[in-house]
Amino acid sequence: MTKPLPKWIMQRYSTLWNKFKDKEFSHTDAFKTLNKDKMISIALSELRQFGWLEMKLDPNDARKRVYKLKSPEQAVKEM
């Protein structure tokens, strides 16, 4: 179930969605997309907790994570 996002997280979600849509991406990809935003780890964690982001382990390196955003339409339907 998704919950409404605070404005500061929604802005980051919007930037990530415009870049990746429904493709998988890494923490490094998100960091570069958000212009080296120091809050990226917190934003990704909050997106996951609010239900707007799915996370799984990288099949090539278990220390890393792979992220995938939910579409805005799907997130709103789940509210």
What does this entry look like structurally?
The chain has 79 residues and is α+β, with helices and mostly antiparallel strands. It is 47% helix and 13% strand. It has four helices and two strands; from the N terminus they run αααββα. It has a two-stranded antiparallel ribbon with strand order 1-2. A hairpin with a 7-residue loop joins strand 1 and strand 2. The longest helix is centred in the N-terminal third of the chain and has 14 residues. It is globular. The N and C termini lie close together (6 Å). The relative contact order is 0.24. The mean pLDDT is 92.
How do the helices and strands line up, and which of them pair or pack?
Layout: H1 7-20, H2 27-33, H3 40-49, E1 53-57, E2 65-69, H4 72-77
Antiparallel strand pairs: 1-2
Number of helices: 4
The mean pLDDT is 92
Can you give the helix content as a percent range?
Answer: 40-55%
Unreliable residue runs? none
Spatial separation of the terminal alpha carbons: 6 Å
Overall, the morphology is: globular
List keywords for this structure.
79 residues; alpha+beta; two-stranded antiparallel ribbon; 2 strands; 47% helix; globular
Question: In a nutshell, what does this entry contain?
Answer:
By secondary structure, the chain is α+β, with helices and mostly antiparallel strands. The protein has helices at about 5-20, 25-35, 40-50, 70-75, and strands spanning about 55, 65-70.
